[in-house]
Amino acid sequence: xxxxxxxxxxxxxxxxxxxxxxxxxxxxxxxxxxxxxxxxxxxxxxxxxxxxxxxxxxxxxxxxxxxxxxxxxxxxxxxxxxxxxxxxxxxxxxxxxxxxxxxxxxxxxxxxxxxxxxxxxxxxxxxxxxxxxxxxxxxxxxxxxxxxxxxxxxxxxxxxxxxxxxxxxxxxxxxxxxxxxxxxxxxxxxxxxxxxxxxxxxxxxxxxxx
Length: 210
Hints:
single chain, alpha/beta, Rossmann fold, Arc Repressor Mutant, subunit A
């Protein structure tokens, strides 16, 4: 039963997303915000399972609000919803820790698909967003790393190629829970913060082609 927070300064957009979520059995909207201050307060009070933030969320933007919220709830699945099409917005959102970035002009079915993916604990990186991640646009200096096991590197490589946790489980013939255990271990050992970091590491170390 996913508990969701919505943050968008346009009420009509919030109503549209709320209608979609409310139509899903077992899903619950536990808070709505029209600005970043409200969003942070509601997130602290409700501690939702996932959230949807508009990028243009006053007084700063959704990416900055996301950074602050992740200090209190590390690893929270958040979808950034935006009307902007430029790569800088996508990149800032991914760097902030977004699990998905969608443009408001895209088909509603993609929003529903992304929400289902986040609720299942899977990032949703498709289209241009996935391409940007695969180009390794987020750079970090990874030092003092533990060495991942061969199986952990197999999981990392397949996730970096864009396969979901369930797909990796099928490819490697292991359970989705085991995939998650290996994913968490490799993220910890390599000091990676999110899937974008993982993809960049795979490219830099020639585990996948850019």
